[in-house]
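User: Here's a protein and a ligand (DQA). What would the complex look like?
Assistant: Let me lay out the input and then the predicted complex.
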Amino acid sequence: MSRIYVLHGPNLNFLGRRDPEVYGRETLAEIDARTAEFGARLGLECDCRQSNSEGTLIDWVQEATAAGVAGMVINAAGYSHTSIALSDAVRDFGGAGGYSVEVHLSNIYRREEFRRHSWMSAAVDGVVVGFGSEGYLLALRMIARRFELNAPRRGGGKRKRSRAGGG
Ligand code: DQA
């Protein structure tokens, strides 16, 4: 099993009662349970965490970088649009060999102007937006696939082809 971090930013702890027409009716606990279960089937051990604090999220990304965690799914929520510091931490995670995917439940490009730019997007390997909580599962699928095609740049998993070999 490859360990990955699934990080949720501010206000996502209110999922289920927060703007359900935009974010759906599932709670974060339900999303995390489904994510962890799906991840396990793909050989990914998901460490799911949520914080309303920018500094805590940065600490967790740095922790993942230092520990050599192989992959990360991050929905930085409102900090996506404001936090260069968090995007710097995610960029460092990638620089150290981690593979990362940004997720947004809603289609941020179809919403208010201020949501249409994410500082995170240029720091991650891929972005999934607009598919609700299924987006986390899509992100996991892409991480597992990447690990399958290439050995994880860091951490566990199986090796089929080298990174130079394609993918
Ligand atoms: C969000 C989109 C952000 O603009 C917003 O601030 C959130 C949730 C999403 O998942 O769609 O909190 O990241």
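Summary: The radius of gyration is 15 Å.
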